[in-house]
UniProtKB/TrEMBL annotation:
GO terms for cellular component: endomembrane system. InterPro entries: DUF445 (IPR007383). The chain crosses the membrane at residues 9-28, 188-206, 212-232, 382-403. It comes from the Bacteria. It is found in: Endomembrane system. Belongs to the UPF0754 family. PANTHER family: UPF0754 MEMBRANE PROTEIN YHEB. Keywords: Membrane, Transmembrane, Transmembrane helix. This is DUF445 family protein. Its main location: membrane.
Length: 405
């Protein structure tokens, strides 16, 4: 009877090893993503933040270098925008906004002149401005396209947005690796059981106290390490008989490219975020200069051709004040009408399909950087954590199962 109990306890070793392998891999995956914000005491550094949220700035920079270096060009993207289509998309709302701006600017800079102008005269001013909208929009869009690299900083867009939205970078990685991360967790169970068998054999023959803690430590270490190797190695397919051996993630390049590019287009590099970066990013000053140039040019034409007596009635000071105020109001109100171009811009830019096609053409080594960039240098933390937990499980097993007395 004692012999049977002893051998039953021996069989617990690979079972416990399987549980340890599953638990350490589960924790390793969770520790990659959570918590999103640092939990603990920052000074000294006692606590934890998910590796991916913690490294989001570095990862964003690597992703942008990949996107801009290999896949997308800012000049190419903005060249897809057609001025006449933009004008059609925003025209109705822009007319409403411009009427209010004209009225407000004239009331503030030249109230007497504007009050003395009959309704018919004001309508002529509105009509003249509205008729010129396609012309001004075309000139402004063309100049924007020629100066796109100064005005639109894609790296700033991606990095700043991901820093402000750490949950999004988690979503990107979890979506791209939606088969690999569950595999890491499941594989801990399988490899843990297999690695527990040598530990069981060693314990049967020697029963030295250090065997179980060492076995647990090795299980925690190897289950994490093996899972990562299976996902990312070998990079290039190796043909063994009828099978092609290649890292799981790299083998799914076409599938991953599809879901990754869709998510990037929908949540990160969409027209809403691009326009926000253009209006408020580091290139906003250059955009302001373009707006000022074309608005001033338009006002000069309106005053010279449409209503020359307005310029004389305003006086030089009020005239320049009016132009400056008009530029400011148009720039400040730009979101009110530019939001109407989102649907057209997303369709014209077509970032998702373009990104997918180019990602599918990357080499395996380049494609690996989609999912395994900056956090690669910190993978050892996950493996060491798994090793420590595995070693503790071996100590607990030793103390409470095999040496209860």
């Amino acid at each position: 009877m004692e012999w049977i109990i002893e051998h039953q306890l021996l069989l617990l070793i690979p079972i416990v090893s399987a549980i340890v392998g599953w638990l350490t891999n589960y924790l390793a995956v969770k520790m990659m993503f959570y918590p999103i914000q640092f939990v603990g005491i920052k000074a000294p550094y006692l606590g934890w933040q998910g590796l991916i949220p913690q490294k989001r700035k570095e990862m964003a920079e690597i992703s942008v270098d990949l996107l801009l270096g290999k896949l997308l060009s800012v000049e190419d993207l903005v060249s897809r925008l057609e001025p006449d289509k933009i004008s059609q998309a925003i025209e109705r709302r822009l007319k409403q906004v411009l009427r209010k701006i004209i009225n407000d600017v004239m009331q503030e800079s030249a109230p007497k002149v504007w009050a003395s102008l009959p309704a018919q005269g004001k309508n002529l001013v509105y009509a003249r401005v509205e008729a010129d909208i396609p012309n001004v929009v075309e000139k402004l869009v063309r100049d924007f396209q020629h100066n796109a690299t100064e005005i639109l900083d894609i790296k700033e867009l991606v990095v700043d947005y991901l820093i402000a939205h750490p949950a999004l970078i988690n979503e990107i990685f979890l979506t791209a690796g939606n088969k690999e991360f569950p595999f890491i967790i499941r594989s801990g169970l399988y490899f843990g059981f297999l690695l527990g068998i040598p530990t069981m054999v060693c314990w049967y023959f020697f029963q030295d106290w250090w065997i179980l803690p060492l076995g647990g430590l090795l299980v925690g270490y190897l289950t994490n390490w093996i899972a990562l190797q299976i996902i990312f190695e070998p990079k290039d397919p190796i043909k063994i008989g009828p099978w092609n051996l290649q890292g799981m993630f790299l083998k799914r390049q076409d599938e991953v490219a599809k879901v990754y590019s869709h998510l990037i287009e929908r949540k990160l590099m969409n027209s809403e975020n691009i326009i926000s970066t253009v209006l408020y990013g580091s290139g906003a000053e250059q955009l302001w200069e373009l707006v000022e140039l074309h608005v001033n040019d338009a006002i000069e034409r309106y005053v010279a051709i449409g209503q020359p007596y307005i310029g004389l009635g305003l006086g030089a000071d009020n005239y320049f004040k009016m132009k400056a105020l008009a530029v400011k109001r148009i720039f400040d109100s730009s979101e009110k009408f530019l939001l109407y171009m989102h649907d057209y811009a997303d369709s014209a830019l077509n970032i998702g399909d373009d990104l997918r096609e180019k990602m599918q053409s990357l080499s395996p080594a380049e494609f690996e950087n989609v999912l395994r960039p900056a956090y690669k240098q910190d993978e050892w933390k996950l493996i060491v954590t798994g090793s420590v937990l595995g070693g503790l499980a071996g100590v607990i097993q030793l103390m409470y199962i095999f040496m209860p007395t």
